[in-house]
Design brief:
With 431 residues, the chain is mainly α. It has 3 domains: 63 residues; 132 residues, Serine Threonine Protein Phosphatase 5, Tetratricopeptide repeat (Alpha Horseshoe), CATH 1.25.40; 125 residues, Serine Threonine Protein Phosphatase 5, Tetratricopeptide repeat (Alpha Horseshoe). Helices cover 67% and strands 0% of the residues. The protein has 20 helices and no strands. Helix 14 packs antiparallel against helix 15. The protein is globular and about 80 Å long. The two termini are 28 Å apart. InterPro entries: Lambda_DNA-bd_dom_sf (IPR010982).
């Protein structure tokens, strides 16, 4: 429990009245989507520190029901007992249970429909396609814990159908769907910080793409392998996979012909090769002239690559290069704007977060530390279930940029918030 001392601020008084330790307050703070260290909280409560970031102010106000200015003001004891807001509840009453029951019923109906046929009919094949399409579209927009179980179940279903006797034309379609689900699970493994499992899933997905003889799917899997390698800190492998997929992308003329060169660009940038990075970005832009969406693009979601993602990748690439600050600022600003509308079909919380991180890095390079904190604030307020591997690594890149800026002491508070944020990635989230 917090010690019974004379509180110096309203915040210290409210913490004392809650009968909680500072570590418990910090844990609740994180649960509400914020990030703060125990040291920083103690300094705020003691009146030693008044500076706070926007996300810290919002979370404190949400926890204690008072403006930050009042929370940090000197505490004046009152004769009447002060009403203290109850601690925020960790659980919420929602209609989630009803939706869960409906999802279970739909799964049972799907399993019955597929089992009731001796061979896969058109209705059953349409159902499998719909399952995979739904997973691809939901993936960029919903927290992984909400969809992972259904994705694993869908892969198991497709593998089971392939292992049973099917018509030759259905076999090819099922291999295509197995490749897509394997690719989605490769991304899931990567998002959970397991590159070994991600590349294992991707190799199987590429085998399925070969059996389906689908150039667009082959190129897409190479793009996933490039992505996994990039975030795993293996940029040479990232370049290699992107280049391996280029021939397939050229034959498919799908949006993979944009994704692969822009993926190659940011790997070259990470290697400190600005000329190769710029050339790859130019090839990505030129590729739009010949793009013709294929049936993989028609799946939507993670299976297609739009201009919004191109802006983010370009910003992420240029943020590595000290000589490209102006271009990086332009691309990151466009990318942040592009991901403002959460109802847009291309919206993806991970890419939105990456765009904000790239903007923060470019602002640090320009000496705008306050602007960098504002740019990163939406990332640091992400709930734990959305702190996927790429998002955590993007935040760490901002921390690295602050260290290398020569003004680390001026940005100490932001660095501490980043450290607190990255200590609770998604894989530690209880579910």
């Amino acid at each position: 429990m917090a010690g019974r001392y004379a509180p110096k601020t309203v915040l210290a008084h409210l913490i004392q009245r809650r009968n909680q330790t500072y570590s418990e307050i910090v844990a609740e703070f994180v649960e509400l989507g914020g990030t703060i260290t125990e040291r920083h909280l103690r300094r705020l409560a003691s009146g030693e520190r008044a500076g706070t970031t926007p996300q810290t102010r919002r979370t404190l106000q949400r926890m204690f029901g008072k403006p930050v200015e009042e929370l940090l003001s000197p505490y004046q004891p009152e004769p009447a007992a002060q009403v203290v807001p109850a601690p925020a509840a960790s659980g919420r009453i929602t209609t989630g249970n009803e939706m869960e029951v409906l999802d279970m019923a739909a799964s049972r109906a799907r399993a019955f429909a597929l089992a009731a046929q001796s061979g896969l009919g058109s209705e059953a094949m349409e159902q499998v396609y719909d399952d995979v399409r739904h997973a691809a579209q939901a993936y960029p927009q919903r927290p992984l814990p909400e969809i992972l179980g259904q994705l694993v179940e869908t892969q198991d279903l497709v593998f089971g159908l392939l292992e049973s006797r099917q018509r030759p034309d259905h076999h090819r379609q099922l291999y295509f769907l197995a490749g897509v689900t394997g690719g989605l699970l490769a991304k899931a493994s990567h998002d959970l910080g397991n590159p070994h499992a991600a590349l294992t899933q991707a190799r199987t997905a590429f085998l399925c793409a070969d059996n389906a003889d689908h150039h667009g799917l082959r190129a897409w899997v190479r793009g996933l392998q490039s992505l996994v390698s990039y975030w795993a800190g293996n940029p040479h492998d990232s370049v290699r996979y992107a280049q391996l997929g280029a021939g397939y992308a050229e034959q498919a003329n799908s949006t993979t012909s944009v994704w692969l060169p822009v993926s190659e660009a940011r790997a070259w940038a990470a290697l400190g090769n600005p000329e190769a990075a710029r050339h790859a970005l130019e090839r990505a832009e030129d590729a739009w002239d010949s793009v013709q969406n294929d049936d993989l693009d028609a799946m939507g979601g993670l299976c297609t690559f739009g201009r919004n993602r191109q802006l983010y990748y370009a910003a992420d690439a240029l943020a590595w290069l000290p000589g490209e600050v102006d271009q990086a600022q332009r691309y990151s600003s466009q990318a942040v704007d592009a991901y403002t509308d959460q109802n847009h079909p291309e919206w993806a919380f991970g890419d939105a977060a990456g765009s904000h991180a790239a903007m923060a890095i470019t602002r640090i390079a320009s000496g705008e530390l306050d602007g960098a904190a504002d740019a990163l604030a939406p990332v640091l307020t992400l709930p734990t279930e959305r702190r996927i591997n790429g998002v955590v690594h993007s935040a760490r890149r901002v921390h690295q940029a602050l260290r290398q800026s020569g003004r680390a002491e001026d940005a100490r508070e932001l660095q501490e918030e980043i450290e607190a944020f990255t200590r609770t990635p998604m894989q530690t989230y209880p579910r």
